[in-house]
């Protein structure tokens, strides 16, 4: 019996015309600030083919033609941006930073703000909300329930913000980073998911915001989390975003970045401080 060996290398490949590749790089950069390097064909294909199929198109090139023809179609534009953004997040991601908040940053801020009993925070690329909600739970644990606490979570993606607002998480999500004692205390079972209790949910307000926009309607904040989003931007965008974020932070307040991010050689006015194993940036 003859054996049929499938040679995957000889199968037709979905290819993106070089002009369309450059068009997509420009388009995604313009709409989100996200930089797509020239060797990310597989990424564009994996993320954008579902968008193409939804439009009943069979290739990325056809999708590009549609995007070129319908410049102002907000819905399609949003679908492309949603598809290209990475929403990876988890509860208490980067534990040393939460330890720094608990042991040093928050106690100092509490002393400074005792008269007004008011503190404000911003999770600047909030994704599905785990970062903002981790902070909310810490603040409750620290006995700040009676303070006027403002936590704002913003993101470019409407779809992910809807998830954040719902405060519902799958088992796999609560298994990642969330202490069991917090799961028991702050969540209730909702079918196959876990729902954050209302008193935690209502501490956070979510709204859509492109970090490249004018941020003057926000703040001033005591602590800003801008974690794991600058990595997607080019140097100039990073510089501008960091400068604008700095302007939203109170003197003496802090900026927390992701592990692969820094203000170094971008904005030199913030003071880099080590607190335990965490790095934080203090606004003088
Ligand atoms: C990897 S997640 C980071 C989530 C969370 N901060 C963390 O560290 O776990 C990056 C988020 O940045 C958002 N994002 C990408 N570009 C953005 C922009 N220009 N303005 C605001 N948010 C953006 C994405 O939608 C995504 O939810």
Elements, N to C (H/E): HHHHHEHEHEHHEEHEEHEEE
How many helices does DSSP assign? 11
Strand order of the largest sheet: 6-2-1-7-8-10-9
CATH topology of the largest domain: Rossmann fold
Give the class from helix and strand content and strand pairing.
Answer: alpha/beta
Radius of gyration computed on alpha carbons: 22 Å
Any idea how many domains? 2
Bound molecules: S-adenosylmethionine
**What is the overall silhouette?**
globular
User: In angstroms, what separates the terminal alpha carbons?
Assistant: 78 Å
Q: What kind of sheet is the major sheet?
A: 7 strands, mixed
Average residue pLDDT: 93
What's the helical proportion of residues?
40-55%
State the CATH class of the largest domain: Alpha Beta
Provide the low-confidence segments as ranges: 1-13
Instruction: Give me the count of strands.
Output: 10
CATH superfamily of the largest domain, by name, is: Vaccinia Virus protein VP39
Task: Please tell me the CATH architecture of the largest domain by its name.
Answer: 3-Layer(aba) Sandwich
Query: Strand content of the residues, in percent?
Result: 15-25%
